[in-house]
Amino acid sequence: MAECHEVLNLIRKEDTYANLYSDLVKLTIEGREVEAPKGTSVLEAAKLAGVLIPHYCYHPSLPVAGVCRMCLVEIEKAPKLAASCAMPVAEGMVVHVDSPQAKEARKSVLEFLLINHPLDCPICDQAGECELQDYVYQEGRSGTRYGDYAKRFNPVEDFGPDVLYVPNRCILCTRCVRFMEHLAEEPVLNVSERGDRAFIGIFEGQQLDHGWSGNVVDLCPVGSLISKDFLHKARAWDLDKTPSVCPGCTQGCNITLETRDNQVLRIRPRPNAEVNRYFMCDEGRLGYQWMNRADRLEVPMVREGGRLTPVDWDRAMDRVASLWRASNGPSVGLVSAGASCEALERAARLLRHAGGSGAFRVREGAEVPLAGVPDLALRKERAANVYGALEAGFSRDWDAAVGRANGAGLVLVLDEPLEGVSSLGSGTMIYIGTVLPEAARVSAAVVLPCASMAEDEGSFRNLRGRVQRYYQANTPPGMARPAAWILDTILEAAGAAGARVGASA
Questions:
Q1: How confident is the model at residue 497 (pLDDT cuts 50, 70, 90)?
Q2: What does DSSP assign to residue 395?
Q3: Do 321 and 192 share a domain, yes or no?
Q4: Across the chain, which distance is largest between two alpha carbons, in Å?
Q5: DSSP letters along 170-197, please?
Q6: Considering the entire predicted model, what is its pTM?
Q7: What pLDDT does residue 329 have?
Q8: Residue 84 or residue 500, greater confidence
Q9: For the chain, what is the domain count?
């Protein structure tokens, strides 16, 4: 029921429905009275009544096709069953979803789909999250009249960098075709052949290499379109799922981190009508490998005799406190725009207490829009919290900050890889990070291991100023701790716990 209302709230914000909510009609669905905006489909109105009508071809963000016939319902006074995805609501309409006639129709549709379906669930990556599997169990017949029928066979096709097509499993819902044509606006897929021989084809010389093409895997209701990256990694029921935010750019797409054995195995989009609808770009989808790095910092280290030596947290913090007390001159902060709002706020507070300032830099790339969805793109700035860093008081003047760091009394580095920075001169560096870059290996007086975003809880601010929370999915390695906790401890050691939030840039 809660999921139905969540989806409905998304639909309410879809452009096609935005101007309809002032004109409501009353109808009855499965004996439950419901009000829905004029123009809403029966399928969507049913969600208001807490009724989920089985369907395959329908998706809220795609044009209605009405080809699967799975969503047939009985409407009183109508001459025949109606496809609920394409039937608009009307005043006084009475809809029966589970009438004998409707249930028999759905059973027949499922029987038809299974004539050629290979029934290879034990090896199919979609098993456990397959809508065909679910509906056959829920709605289907106990047996089939086509037991001796020779099933169709077509070889697996490579559609692109990350997508394989298994035509034998395809139910021709055409979601993938409509997504590429209407949302990606790159119509490279089609329905080839007819009837029993029909399959999804790709135009000669073309690939699914659009920056958002991975969404066809999410849209596929069966195991026909599959991700090469996730192939044979895990079964759906083995995965722990945690709500999060994509760290790849300033769009801030809502995602689900799917993990097993403390490893991120897959990232999928999480619906949010105001940020990313139902989608995410391929760069964000496939760019999670850094979360599973084997060269993570696991223990605090202090420099003794010119070498970094592992120590416990108490000793590391004692050294940090002595460095703050002994620092001469202004401090400089070099921070990552991928750090959380909470960590950046604390870093800014520390720098202000020491009379210093900080800066960040951002890797940039080409902006890749999803043309059919307004205001949705892989953004030029490839970091999630650029606007959180600006809000905390950090500047974009990276080169100037690096120059000041060469003569600073103390340098605070927050999970910045320091690429291109060979040395930070006479400054005393406190490095907080997930991995140890060469510049920190050479210059750091103290190294403090922090958790990655997959191992922490925090928030990012996206390009529209929206603050979004992510949650802990994995356990930090060794003695690594959340960056905000580390900075809180330093604030106490430096006597700055009560300092005003914010730092001058």
A1: low
A2: B
A3: no
A4: 90
A5: -----HHHHIIIIIS----EEEES-GGG
A6: 0.90
A7: 76
A8: 84
A9: 3
Distance CA 476, CA 473 (A): 10
Please report, to the nearest 10 degrees, the dihedral formed by the alpha carbons of residues 7, 8, 14, 18 taken in order. -160
Distance in angstroms (rounded) separating the CA atoms of residues 15 and 39 = 13
CB atoms < 10 A from the CB of 426, how many? Answer: 13
89/154 same-domain check: no
CATH number for the domain spanning 192: value is 3.30.70.20
Domain of 401, in residue numbers: 301-493
Does 500 map to a domain? no
Ordered alpha helix ranges (H), 74-157: 100-113, 131-139
Cα separation, 483 vs 432, in Å, equals: 7
pLDDT tens-digit map of 153-200: 899 999 999 999 999 999 999 999 999 999 999 999 999 998 888 999
The answer as to whether 262 is a domain residue is no
What would the two tokens of residue 77 be?
A: 């006074």
468 and 327 assigned to the same domain: yes
Average pLDDT over residues 366-377: 97
- For residues 432 and 487, membership in a common domain is answered with yes
In angstroms, the CA 30 to CA 45 distance is 12
Same domain, 164 and 49: no
Please report the pLDDT score of residue 337 as a whole number. 98
Co-location of 337 and 476 in the same domain: yes
Looking at residue 398, the DSSP 8-state letter turns out to be: H
